[in-house]
Design a protein that fits this description.
Elements (H helix, E strand, L loop, with lengths): L11 H5 L2 H7 L18 E5 L11 H19 L3 E5 L1 E2 L3 H14 L4 H4 L1 H26 L9 E2 L3 H16 L3 E11 L4 E3 L4 E16 L11 E6 L10 E4 L13 E4 L4 E7 L11 E4 L5 H10 L25 H14 L3 E14 L7 E10 L1 H11 L8 E3 L3 H10 L4 E2 L1 E2 L9 E4 L7 E4 L10 E2 L3 E2 L1 H5 L2 H4 L10 H5 L2 E7 L3 H16 L4 E7 L2 E2 L16 H8 L1 H10 L7 E2 L2 H23 L17 H22 L3 H28 L6 H18 L4 H8 L27 H23 L8 E6 L3 H9 L1 H8 L1 E7 L9 E5 L2 E5 L7 H26 L2 H6 L2 H31 L1
Helix pairs in contact: 10-15, 11-15, 16-17, 17-18, 18-20, 19-20, 19-21, 19-23, 20-21, 21-22, 23-25, 26-28
Length: about 900
């Protein structure tokens, strides 16, 4: 045996240590390295990484997302494509600013104490700290990112792209500034888009309040009307009460006036179809500055907008004596005063859905505010039209997620893009005489000539810059001849289903608007990582898992294997340490099988195909199985069915290669004959298998491959070797069929030994009864394998074998297997076992017959499927016949 530097057990730490640094030092992930394996004019293949937020460390969801991307890129590179995987991170405006403000609060400092410039310096320090951590984590996972092309959503190039997009949309009339009701985060003091609001059930109440008539009118014998509200702190902004115009109960009240309690302001009763007649009393207060629906009602009726709340969630001077009170403290005080003033009729506790800021977690306020908006209808129509054209559309995988995209785009509202933050792309807009009747607005990167121009202090929504990511990172708009010309549109986006609205849709309409093309050809949607009980991982549940902790224990390749093969596209995956144990065990199996193979090769054994004329049945079989595996794995990769590809690899490596073929080769390797064909077959199959595995397990496969005789001592990089391709010359159905019969025989005899509790050391006579001349030839030509794997004292293969009554038996396709073991078995137990077999085979015959008697199946199924089912039926019928005969013979002897 050769002396090699491989431990007797897979040790991920030693295998992975330093290897990624070597890859980066050699710049193996730059497109220039593709030239080592490219043919003429290689096709480009590009992925831009979904940029993680610089708010903290990566989690398992990031690990899953990036593992899938890395697998795709590595495989495409090995297939000779000109690949680019572009890294980068997102400044994550509100999320990052909230983290830094939280850190400052712990030190007793606010951003206002520092001022904008110094605060932004603090955020850059945060960014640099966490960006370094994220890059280190990417390295631990072995991600083949080209860091020379790394981008950041706040870098200079992206800022130029953002400014151009904003200015162009403004000049087209697709960006406008207006006073609207928006979602407001009182803690971050910024606007939020609709999809940055998370709804959860909170305890609250319906407060039933008297609104007295002002002209002596009555209703139902009372001098007031009853209004129910969940937010009594907004009553200072009430400007009307509305009823439905067709509500017969209130038709005589329309036009009358009532008084706002605690305020003393007279407001009208109006009619508007917005009101639901059958909900509550059918009368609602209208507060246009604090409710989006009321805002629309107010526009229709030309009502005043009274904003009674500050940007940090306190009531303002328009709230009278409650001025300066925090909103929820004010609610308590107002309720107490309503009760004291005999305005409160009743309070009904409820649990209702309340919007919370996705970033800070505080309840959101609907607040009247002047903001910048994107007019979405024209952009959405353009993106939806793109999806109707075969050569332009983005293919969603799974396809059902296109419906999610379509529904959202068809019902989209204008997008509020301004944020009252300091961290982000400052809006390229300038004001002169702001807030006066002479206000002027100029949109551009620089203020017009002259004095008194003031820049808009707000920044743009993070998703505004992220929406440009596929093309802004490629040099657009300044350089459209380099990477942009070669790699755009990108090929595949990999992301979770939870950000189709946030990000995928926005990239699609911005890509179409500014490049005239789709931003990517495919979007692969995966699910969420959940714990073993199916719960979403979260800090509150304490069930989160740090991927770096997993790598520390099991290695990156084990984590990658679990993430790659754990689910189907679009589905969630459950993380458990049992699954990680299984992943490590599989790699350990690969390691030990590889170690055995490499130790049994000669110093100069090549990893190329052996002389096909010198092969044994086992050699031909494993090469044919390898060929089928290459075909199936490649097809499943192309369909993004990585779980199926993983199952193909697992079954081939564990069962076909390790448990069967390697065991078969031991007879030759331990003998005195010519070992060359077997050694070369082992080397070739191992080499090709490692290449199939490389995109999923880059560390361990390279470590093993570099121990191969034709690689030892060479400075060759595994990541730039060629990916396996199907070789029709290796496809051998005859060899696979013959070897299957040999496997069936070996398994049958092993089962007999097991049932009789007869170890391999127990001598047995083996009788094989068959009328199939082909089987007789197969078994006679492979007696060496039969002797090695079942250890018979004597072996008889014939059609006219005389079967002893007291023998154990198994039926395989085309043959009956007998082992005379009368002294080892209880004939009653054997009869019971055979009775069970008869029952099983009868059920299979019934199932297959029923299927073939079904005209719908026979007429609609492909001919090959029907033929295969007929063959199965014949096989089961033959097994049933042979077993019934054997059972009858034993029952006659008993």
């Amino acid at each position: 045996m050769r002396d090699i530097d491989m431990s007797t057990k897979y040790e991920p730490t030693s295998v992975e240590s330093g290897r990624y640094d070597t890859w980066q030092a050699k710049k193996l992930f730059a497109p220039e390295s593709n030239q080592a394996i490219q043919g003429n004019e290689p096709a480009p293949y590009a992925i831009v990484i979904p940029p993680p937020n610089v708010t903290g460390k990566l989690h398992l969801g990031h690990a899953w997302d990036t593992t899938l991307q890395d697998m795709i890129i590595r495989q495409k590179k090995m297939q000779g494509m000109d690949v680019l995987w572009l890294p980068g991170m997102d400044h994550a405006g509100i999320a990052t600013q909230a983290k830094v403000e939280q850190r400052l609060r712990a030190e007793g400092v606010s951003r206002y104490d520092l001022g904008r410039e110094k605060f932004v310096e603090q955020v850059w320090d945060w960014k640099n700290e966490y960006a370094a951590t994220i890059k280190q984590q990417w390295g631990k996972m072995g991600l083949s990112l080209d860091f020379d092309r790394e981008r950041f959503t706040l870098d200079e190039g992206l800022n130029k792209a953002v400014n151009k997009v904003f200015i162009d949309l403004y000049n087209k009339g697709l960006i406008y500034r207006g006073e609207y009701i928006i979602n407001w985060d009182p803690q971050a003091r910024t606007a939020l888009s609709d999809i940055e609001v998370i709804y959860q059930d909170d305890e609250g109440a319906f407060y039933h309040v008297k609104y007295p008539f002002t002209d002596g009118a009555t209703f139902d014998g009372q001098d007031y009307i009853e209004i129910a509200t969940t937010r009594p702190e907004t009553i200072f902004g009430d400007v009307a009460v509305a009823v439905h115009p067709s509500d017969e109960r209130y038709k005589d009240l329309i036009g009358k006036t009532v008084m706002v309690p605690l305020v003393g302001r007279e407001i009208p009763i109006i009619a508007d179809e917005y009101v639901e007649k059958d909900f509550g009393t059918g009368m609602v207060k209208i507060t246009p500055a604090h409710d989006p629906n009321d805002f629309q009602v107010g526009n229709r009726h030309n009502l005043e907008r009274i904003n009674t709340m500050t940007d940090d969630g306190h009531l303002n001077a328009l709230a009278g004596k409650y001025n300066g009170m925090e909103r929820f403290e004010a609610r308590k005080a107002i309720v107490a005063d309503l009760e004291a003033g005999d305005y409160m009729l009743k309070v009904d506790p409820i649990v209702h859905s309340v919007g919370h800021s996705e970033r800070t977690g505080v309840p959101v306020e609907s607040r009247l505010s002047t903001q910048w908006f994107v007019k979405m209808a024209p952009l959405a129509e353009q993106a939806l039209a793109m999806q109707q054209k075969t050569d332009e559309k983005v293919e969603f995988v799974p396809a059902r997620f296109e419906d999610t995209f379509t529904r959202w785009m068809e019902n989209i509202r204008d997008w509020v893009i301004s944020r009252q933050l300091w961290w982000g792309h400052q809006i390229p807009a300038w004001y002169k005489n702001k807030g006066t009747d002479q206000e002027e607005i100029f949109v551009g990167t620089q203020a017009p000539d002259g004095d008194s121009w003031e820049r808009d202090p707000d920044v743009l929504d993070t998703w505004f810059s992220s929406a440009l990511w596929p093309f802004s990172t490629m040099g657009w708009p300044e350089n459209t001849t380099g990477d942009f010309a070669k790699y755009y549109p990108t090929n595949t986006l990999v992301t979770g289903y939870d950000i189709i609205f946030f990000w995928v849709a926005r990239m699609m309409f911005q890509g179409k608007e500014f490049t005239g093309q789709r931003p990517f050809k495919n979007v692969l949607i995966h699910g969420l990582i959940r714990d073993g009980e199916g719960r979403k991982m979260s800090k509150s549940l304490g069930n989160g898992v740090d991927p770096m902790d997993v790598i520390e224990k099991y290695g990156a390749d084990a984590l990658r294997w679990f993430l790659a093969t754990g689910s189907t596209p679009g589905q969630d995956v459950r993380f458990t340490y049992d699954k990680m144990d299984a992943a490590w065990n599989f790699i350990n199996k690969i390691w030990n099988a590889s170690r055995y193979v490499i130790m049994n090769l000669d110093d100069h054994t090549p990893s190329t195909l052996p002389d096909l004329t010198q092969l044994t049945l086992a050699d031909k079989w494993i090469l044919s199985r390898l060929n089928t595996t290459i075909d199936n794995v490649t097809r499943n990769f192309d369909k993004f069915e990585f779980g199926e590809a993983g199952r193909e690899l697992y079954n081939f490596i564990w069962s076909d290669f390790a448990d069967w073929y390697i065991e078969m080769t031991k007879e030759t390797l331990n003998g005195d004959g010519d070992k060359t064909p077997v050694q070369q077959t082992l080397a070739y199959v191992l080499d090709q298998t490692l290449r199939l595995l490389q995109p999923i397990m880059p560390f361990v496969t390279e470590a093993i491959w570099q121990e191969m005789p034709d690689q030892a001592g060479k400075d060759v990089d595994f990541s730039i070797t060629r990916y396996p391709v199907v070789n029709e010359a290796l496809h051998d159905e005859q060899a696979e069929s013959a070897f299957k019969s040999l496997q069936d025989l070996i398994v049958a005899v092993r089962n007999i030994r097991s049932e009789a509790n007869a170890p391999m050391s127990t001598e047995i006579d083996l009788l094989i009864k068959t009328t199939d001349d082909n089987l007789i030839q197969i078994f006679n030509e492979n007696t060496d394998y039969i002797n090695r794997f079942v250890h018979p004292k004597s072996l008889s293969i014939a059609a006219d074998i005389e079967v002893l009554d007291l023998a154990m038996s198994q039926v395989i396709t085309g043959a009956e297997i007998y082992v005379p073991l009368a002294e080892l078995i209880d004939i009653t137990v054997e009869i019971e076992r055979l009775s069970g077999e008869v029952k099983k085979f009868t059920g299979e015959v019934k199932r297959a017959s029923g299927k073939l008697n079904n005209e719908k199946f026979v007429n609609s199924a492909p001919e090959a499927v029907v033929t295969a089912e007929k063959q199965k039926l014949a096989d089961w019928q033959e097994k049933l016949r042979a077993t019934q005969e054997r059972l009858a013979a034993l029952e006659a002897v008993q």
